[in-house]
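Hi all, posting the design record for the shared folder.

TITLE: backbone redesign
STEP: 1 of 1
STRUCTURE INPUT:
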């Protein structure tokens, strides 16, 4: 069985990292300093491993996947009345809704797909766990996606402002309903 001192030998030392950097072509060295190269390597590893680590943590220590955790977290922010009994009822409904896309919920397959293909890809900038945009069709899809990203950025700004207007309308309706039951008005 390996002890803790053996674990460090699996990671390259600073001298080994510098040797790898020195082995890069002159063109690559001109594009990045050693520090920038190490930072990019770290960020690539982080993007690759963190979604997996988060998924494992949620699987081992609860009944949530990322979709159910995010659903519950988002719904918890919608409390509008300030009345403890109503807030407790709302907590129960929020958990019920979130649990349906969780590990044992009716919509667990949907929640798992949204977690893997939606949330994890969003965390990785649209890439899957292999670093491609198109999976098996990556050689065709990746160049198309990269060219479309510029056009998509303009559309995202418009969609964001439309989403903000919808959210503001929902908040207004929620504060009106909360006011009907004696809660605070905003």
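Okay, here is what came back for every position:
SEQUENCE:
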């Amino acid at each position: 069985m390996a002890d803790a001192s053996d674990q460090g030998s699996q990671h390259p030392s600073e001298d080994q990292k510098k040797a790898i950097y020195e082995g890069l072509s002159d063109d690559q060295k001109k594009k990045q300093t050693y520090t920038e190269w190490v930072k990019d390597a770290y960020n690539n590893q982080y993007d690759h491993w963190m979604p997996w680590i988060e998924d494992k943590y949620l699987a081992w220590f609860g009944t949530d996947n990322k979709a159910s955790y995010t659903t519950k977290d988002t719904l918890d922010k919608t409390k509008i009345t300030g009345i403890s009994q109503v807030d407790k009822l709302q907590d129960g409904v929020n958990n019920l809704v979130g649990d349906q896309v969780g590990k044992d919920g009716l919509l667990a397959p949907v929640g798992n797909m949204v977690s893997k293909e939606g949330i994890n890809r969003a965390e990785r900038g649209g890439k899957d766990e292999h670093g491609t945009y198109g999976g098996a069709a990556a050689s065709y899809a990746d160049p198309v996606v990269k060219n479309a990203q510029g056009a998509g950025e303009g559309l995202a700004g418009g969609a964001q402002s439309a989403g903000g207007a919808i959210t503001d309308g929902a908040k207004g309706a929620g504060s009106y309903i909360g006011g009907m039951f004696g809660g605070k008005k905003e």
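COMMENT: The mean pLDDT is 74.
Let me know if anyone wants the other runs.
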